[in-house]
Amino acid sequence: MELRVVGCHGGETPRHRTSAFVLDRRVAIDAGSLTSETDLRAQWRLEACLVSHAHLDHIRDLATMADNRAQHGCPPLIVAGTSMTIAILKKHFFNGLLWPDFSKIPSAAAPTIAYKVLRPEVTVTIAGYEVRAVMVNHTIDCCAFIVRGPNGAIAYSGDTGPTDRLWEVLNDTPDLRAMLMEVSFPNREQSLATTSGHHTPRTLGIDLRKFERSRDLPFILYHVKPVFQAEVHRECAKLRGLNLTIPNLGDQFIV
Ligand SMILES: [Zn+2]
Ligand SMILES: [Zn+2]
Questions:
Q1: For position 135, what pLDDT does the model report?
Q2: Distance in Å, CA 183 to ligand 2 centroid
Q3: CA-CA distances (angstroms) from residue 111 to 73, 75, 102, 114?
Q4: How far apart are the C-alpha atoms of 168 and 155, rounded to whole Å?
Q5: Residue from 128, 217, 101, 130 nearest 170 by CA
Q6: From ligand 2's centre to the CA of 106, what distance in Å?
Q7: Ligand 1 centre and the CA of 143: distance in Å?
Q8: 82 CB-near residues (< 8 Å, 6+ apart)
Q9: CB–CB of 51/78 below 8 Å?
Q10: Nearest CA to 219 among 244, 201, 239, 199?
Q11: Distance CA 187, CA 227 (A)
């Protein structure tokens, strides 16, 4: 699978973009900055977007994506998330007020977006991939994803603080090839990280070691807050015995 990093930060500046990744040019994982660095053809080519949770830094560019696809007459973009995430998108985002209801545009029979509700830990097929959502620990309902293609699986943590269930499931996933893992704040902001449901390098190091192959599996770290970037990078560099990568915007990984 080819994994492209469109946005990998927990905030936005000209040098930082919010969470958005694209697998094999077909499936997006979160849509924070999805359209900001994806040309029209690439936007039209997408088949689905997996949405970890409804926070704005993960859904924002669904708005511009839907608009661009509607005008080109694209087939419906599958927008997949847990029931709470989909309910929030319907009520608070594509609600005909903040933004048009693209699940009915241009018509309810042939809409621009089609919602797909994911039940936790039930594997479904989306755009040819096996997708499994696993609930994690954040301030609102949020899930990780395990996405399996023909040659193995990758995992995406979503926004989360310490969790156990995700690691149990991943320890049961022998074909896991890589994981996108969040870390947001430096260690000195631990209380902020705890109340906002995020990791610091300290809790990250503890959590990653719940995974039995933590020395070998490539962990791609994302969601670092721009204000704390240098500090979080320094603290992550001190975590020993883990295969950690901090990606740059535009990076592509073959996993
Ligand atoms: Zn969040
Ligand atoms: Zn976030």
A1: 98
A2: 10
A3: 9, 8, 6, 7
A4: 13
A5: 217
A6: 31
A7: 10
A8: 117, 118, 119, 120, 133, 135, 141, 143
A9: no
A10: 244
A11: 14
14 token code pair:
């000209």
Confidence of residue 95 (pLDDT cuts 50, 70, 90): very high
Instruction: Give 34-87 pLDDT, tens digit per residue.
Output: 999 899 999 999 999 999 999 999 999 999 999 999 999 999 999 999 999 999
pTM, whole model, 2 decimals?
A: 0.97
CB 30 within 8 A of CB 20: yes
How many angstroms separate the alpha carbon of residue 70 from the centre of ligand 1? 27
SS3 157: coil
Q: Which two tokens stand for residue 111?
A: 């809409």
Query: Ligand nearest 54 Cα, by number?
Result: 1
pLDDT for res 250: 97
CA-to-CA separations, 18 to 33, 34, 57, 116, 163, in angstroms, rounded: 5, 8, 6, 23, 23
Average pLDDT over residues 233-250: 97
Alpha carbon of 108 to ligand 2 centroid (Å): 31
Average pLDDT over residues 154-166: 98
